[in-house]
């Protein structure tokens, strides 16, 4: 077991595993300024990645991150790809753009970082519950479509699905994943968040099962970045926070230890870079360590039998099969 923990900085991981950064291509979703995805990208620029592919809804929100990367390292090629992860058409167009780009022969690491949290009830234009659409289903389609370029990478490729301790707020609603069986006023925003974050973990489990048969050099991990003050919490109210502490932590008076952005991106970077993880059992990291502790990961999110069921559910929701 490593000595990394809650106080580890992202740049420390990049320094320790610079050989797993140098010359490699990283794709990151949701790298808007001030967020964990942005900090992940800037941390990687402290070494010598060949390319950072940054996917988001607005170049304006991501341009400061591109500028910060270039200020650190002018040798890094940075590509911005426009995508709305809550729109399947947009996701497919973004994937097609990347697949057609001859300057991207392969992708070494995919970091599915983008998400929504505790937002009001809304269905995407595809009729999908918005947190599930933006936080999981968009990544499901994007990553599966990009697999030819991921599988073309040298051994050691990674697919990182950023989850959250919020997985404890609820599992997969197999019979009503879009929360449409009841009226919108009955919508449980934390159950929806829990479903999306549970799906991220189960997706990693199923990716590992499927890829182990054909491409054992590719591994997927999921993780809890910890409590970090970012724009992700823009819809939170005192009442929503109170409900979350009860639902997720089991007590109303719980106060999380907030991390800096550097500490918040560290667990993502260990999942993306550290080759020693492959000698350990597990798929989910908290504070830079693999764990099955139910205080951080709910049993339903680690249910191996639920993982292929989730895959089939996701295929049905997005209307596309991925025989991997």
Automatic annotation (TrEMBL):
<dbReference type="InterPro" id="IPR002347">
    <property type="entry name" value="SDR_fam"/>
</dbReference>
<dbReference type="InterPro" id="IPR036291">
    <property type="entry name" value="NAD(P)-bd_dom_sf"/>
</dbReference>
<comment type="similarity">
    <text>Belongs to the short-chain dehydrogenases/reductases (SDR) family.</text>
</comment>
<dbReference type="Pfam" id="PF00106">
    <property type="entry name" value="adh_short"/>
</dbReference>
<keyword id="KW-0560">Oxidoreductase</keyword>
<dbReference type="GO" id="GO:0016491">
    <property type="term" value="F:oxidoreductase activity"/>
</dbReference>
<protein>
    <recommendedName>
        <fullName>Short-chain dehydrogenase</fullName>
    </recommendedName>
</protein>
């Amino acid at each position: 077991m490593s000595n990394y923990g809650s106080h580890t900085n992202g740049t420390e991981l990049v320094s320790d595993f610079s050989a797993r950064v140098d010359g490699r291509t990283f794709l990151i979703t949701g790298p808007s300024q001030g967020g964990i995805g942005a900090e992940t990208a800037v941390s990687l620029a402290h070494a010598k990645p060949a390319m950072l592919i940054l996917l988001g809804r607005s170049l304006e929100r991501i341009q400061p991150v591109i500028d910060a990367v270039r200020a650190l390292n002018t040798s890094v090629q940075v590509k911005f790809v426009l995508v709305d992860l809550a729109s399947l058409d947009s996701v497919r167009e973004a994937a097609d753009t990347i697949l057609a780009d001859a300057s991207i022969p392969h992708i070494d690491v995919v970091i599915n970082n983008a998400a929504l949290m505790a937002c009001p009830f809304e269905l995407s234009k595809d009729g999908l519950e918005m947190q599930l659409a933006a936080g999981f289903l968009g990544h499901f389609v994007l990553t599966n479509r990009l697999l030819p370029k991921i599988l073309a990478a040298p051994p050691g490729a990674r697919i990182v699905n950023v989850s959250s301790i919020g997985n404890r707020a609820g599992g997969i609603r197999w019979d009503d994943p879009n929360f449409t069986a009841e009226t919108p006023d009955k919508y449980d925003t934390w159950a929806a968040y829990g479903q999306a974050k549970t799906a991220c973990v189960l997706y990693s489990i199923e990716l590992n099962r499927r890829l182990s048969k054909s491409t054992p050099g590719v591994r997927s991990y999921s993780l809890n970045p910890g409590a970090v003050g970012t724009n992700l919490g823009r819809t939170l109210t005192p009442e929503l926070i109170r409900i979350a502490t009860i639902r997720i932590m089991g007590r109303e008076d719980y106060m999380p230890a907030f991390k800096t952005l550097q500490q918040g991106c560290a667990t993502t970077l260990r999942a993306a870079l550290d080759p020693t993880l492959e000698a350990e059992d597990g798929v989910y990291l908290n504070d830079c360590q693999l764990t099955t502790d139910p205080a951080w990961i709910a049993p339903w999110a680690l249910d191996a039998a639920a993982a292929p069921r989730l895959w089939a559910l996701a295929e049905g929701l997005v209307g596309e099969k991925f025989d991997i």
